[in-house]
Amino acid sequence: MRQVIFNKGQTLYRAGEAADRIFVLLNGEVGLFSPLNPDVTHLRLEDYGTFGETEVINGHLRRFTARCLADCEVLEMAKQEFQARLESTDPLIKLLVKSLTQHSVMMTPVQAQQRPNAA
Which of 23, 71, 77 lies closest to 48 in space, CA to CA? Predict the structure, then answer.
């Protein structure tokens, strides 16, 4: 795991890319943008928000583009490290994490609840 600084406007990953990391936002603001409507913020994350984990856990490509809406400080964890941590945890916790991420994917269509970006 490593701590990384990103500048406002910088892209952390793009929709369609392989999911090779998860993120914890320590400070700042990140927007997730749908490839179907890249000018609209699908989800806005603030301090201590996590993102990128759903695709890592489920083995999917990135569904959104993640871009800094402000200068950001994040913890970045490689897929292999996250998987090793998850494998070493209680089997019930592993099952719950997998189940919750699958439910998250089913309940969050790309077009759902999109909001226009603030000017």
Answer: 23
Residue type, 12: L
105 token code pair: 């994917």
Q: Which fold has domain 2-109?
A: Jelly Rolls (2.60.120)
pLDDT for position 117: 44
| CA 82 from centroid of its chain's CA atoms | 13
Between 102 and 76, the more confident residue is 76
Q: 24-47: buried (b, 16+ CB within 10 Å) or exposed (e) per residue? A: bbeebbbbbbbeeeeeebbbebee
What is the pLDDT at residue 114?
A: 36
Give kind and range of the element (H or E) at residue 100. helix 91-107
Question: How is the chain split into domains, by residue range?
Answer: 2-109
